Amino acid sequence: MTRGAGFAATVALSMTLAACAGRIVPPGEAGGYPSRPVREPRPGPSSRLPNGASASRIPPGPIRIVPATPLPATPVTTTPGAATAAQAGILAGPPVASLPMTEGQADAARAAFALSCPGLMRRTDSSGLTQGADWQPACQAAASVAPGRARDFFARYFEAVQVGDGRSLATGYYEPEIAGSRERRSGYDVPIYARPRDLIDVDLGAFSTDLKGRKVRGKVQGSTLVPYDDRTAIELGSLEGRAPVLAWGADPVEVFFLQIQGSGRLRQPDGTIMRIGYDSQNGRDYTGIGALMKARGLLGPDQSSMQGIVAWLHEHPEQGRAIMRENKSFVFFRELTGAPQGAMGYAVTGQVSAAADPKFVPLGAPVFLSMDRQDATGLWVVQDTGGAIKGSNRFDTFWGAGDTARTVAGGMSARGTAFLLLPIGTLARAGLATTSGAAGAVPQP
Questions:
Q1: Structural domains of the chain, with CATH
Q2: Does the predicted TM-score (pTM) go above 0.85?
Q3: With 0-12 CB in 10 A as exposed, 13-18 as middle and 19+ as buried, what is 131?
Q4: What is the DSSP string of 1-12?
Q5: I need a surface site. Which of 6, 18, 155, 399 has the fewest CB within 10 A?
Q6: Cβ burial 401-410 (10 Å sphere, 16+ → b, else e)
């Protein structure tokens, strides 16, 4: 949802402690949920298809991690410092028909892909892998696939492509629900801001071709463009009179994590729901507080999840406020009247949509993730981006809303192999055969 970063990004500690989505997440690494009792999940939004099939990746009953064995990537020498997928190089993946996707997953992905097609064909692919016209045959066919033939559709119109070494990391994000109110009232005094009137976006590429694709945000001070207010200044009231207050939250920690996720629901005192989504950000760098807290020895072995971090912040309000302010990034919201949207401007679907770096994945493209856990394995459609979702084969999977989504996304850290599904002919244009194990990675022209 064009997230400012994404949960994993904030919690980048359970994964590798080093390193979230478009729209919200981070570098997760050591996979798995935190140690806590397994509980029955509350039903969340399901990917229920018109033909009655279900694309749900979460089986009914208690939430448990089911291990899986990823498909192997083809060994390849990667290009250091590659800035795009074309520079990283591509090679053929396995035949699409051989990928272990369910019909339900395929049909849900087909629907999301069809929704994304107008943008996919219109946008310039900054990955350097495809052109808009390449997608036209698949897009035309996607709208009229017969029930039960979605897997055949992908096998007919797509070929699997490995980018670079193919080694993938997948984290998770979700649409949170927190207590909020349109009006300030007792117990609701944390401002949730709309975009400030004096926030300026600058496309540096308009000034120099060497800076093409780079942007900054700031404000004008006198005759100079300066960095915009950071989190500390904003929380101390610097935006008064400069930015509309969209709503008021009840808990500063929950509002902080709402910014990380990039969109969410505000449950008001009368029980009604107000949906808000990412509008802009202050231009400051994102810092994942989970890694900071882990490095400082503030978290125990069972606290390396979003839930564990939230609990610690609540238990140590003053110290927690100071730590949250070390993340200078601040997200501004707008009210949504429909489903949450990704960076492409289309609705995202729980257990179907994912975020990635558009320099390595064409926005709107399907991707098959073969991971070390079953719930993350399968076909996804990249419809979103995230401030901390950068580089090749880095994905952030969207799980929808509700307690189940929160639990799964909060503990999601999966590793394995990623295969982009690109239009038939992509490999031939790069001079590669379409069978797995063909020649090594060859950069696109």
A1: 189-336 (2.40.240.50)
A2: no
A3: middle
A4: -BBSS-HHHHTT
A5: 18
A6: bbbbbbbbbb
